[in-house]
Design a protein that fits this description.
Belongs to the TIM50 family. The protein has about 300 residues and is α/β, with parallel strands linked by helices. It contains 11 helices and 9 strands. The chain has a domain of about 200 residues: Rossmann fold.
């Protein structure tokens, strides 16, 4: 082997070893930082608690808060791997959010699933500050594949936005997480709106509809004038029924179904979500194929080796 090739190989080996060492250090630091993910009793830091105890002052001008959205359970209800139902009133909710605040997404689902669920944002998707998924929790390979409880440490978001000179400084003073799991906000408990879980199969939702996103809008209308939302939310925790829930309207039952494969949207009704199958195909069409008069039924009967009993 020539001296030039030997020198090149040695240089390449050194670079690879250096890169590996650097990567190992990063992973080690990440593991240390995320030790709370597997901690049984994660707690807010003394510094955070001191911030949440700093009295908030209500001003005349609103603040452009950072709103971090969870997806499944908060805004959508997945139907397997092929589609989702979206919470009623989501269009006016998104219009309000993107007009008043900066908005980001952080879901514990995997990146591909998060990408599918983000179809609900439509033209607003390009205005998202960030779209984080399970890949942003710093989980080990084993924990990433397991169904474990995760915690959304807002400090990671704040730090990631520090390098953007066009962004104001986001901290516990001006950030709100919207999530259907309060445990996700264990490290910053007074910066979280614990919205009720949205499940399109839930009997209560099917009977009474859902207008909780209107409650969230009403709550944010109060919070946006505060200069320390962590203190405001500590003193005034979010609760439902900020909007008169006795006045149930048809829109409280309107839910849009998204089919991931082609982003097809179908307006449905929570009282009859069974009208669509998991992939967004009309259940009537599915059932018709099983009836004796349908051509596909006749074809299957001819090719069947055993008698077929019609399923009406």
């Amino acid at each position: 082997m020539s001296s030039d090739r030997t020198q090149t190989l040695a240089s390449w080996t050194y670079e690879m070893a250096t890169a590996y060492t650097r990567s190992a250090k990063v992973m080690s630091n990440t593991a240390k930082h995320f030790s709370h993910v597997r901690h049984k009793n994660p707690k807010a830091s003394p510094a955070y608690l001191a911030t949440s105890n700093t009295p908030s002052i209500k001003g005349n001008d609103s603040h452009r808060l950072l709103i971090i959205l969870d997806l499944n359970g908060a805004l959508v209800s997945k139907t397997g791997k092929s589609g989702m139902w979206v919470r009623p009133h989501y269009t006016e909710f998104l219009e309000y959010l993107f007009d008043q605040f900066e908005v980001g997404v952080w879901s514990s689902a995997r990146q591909n699933t998060v990408s599918n669920m983000c179809q609900l944002f439509g033209n607003f998707k390009k205005q998202l500050l960030f779209t984080w998924s399970r890949e942003n929790f710093g989980l080990s390979e084993d924990d990433y594949l397991r169904n474990i409880s995760t915690i959304k440490d807002l400090q990671l978001v704040w730090k990631s936005l520090e390098d953007n000179p066009d962004m104001p400084s986001y901290t516990a003073y001006n950030t709100i997480l919207l999530d259907d799991s309060s445990s996700k906000a264990a490290l910053q408990p007074f910066n979280s709106i614990a919205i009720s879980e949205f499940n399109h199969k839930d009997t209560e939702k099917q009977m009474n509809g859902d207008n909780e996103l209107l409650d969230v809008i009403a709550y944010l209308e109060q919070a946006k004038y505060e200069n320390n939302v962590s203190n405001f939310m500590k003193r005034n925790p979010y609760k439902t029924d900020l909007v008169n829930s006795d006045e149930v309207t048809e829109r409280d039952f309107e839910s849009t179904h998204f089919r991931y494969s082609d982003a097809k949207q179908t307006l449905g009704d929570l009282r009859n979500t069974a009208g669509l199958t998991h992939d967004g195909v009309s259940r009537r069409r599915t059932l018709e194929k099983k009836r004796p008069g349908h051509r596909k039924y006749r074809k299957s009967k001819k090719t069947s080796s055993s008698p077929v009993t019609p399923q009406l």
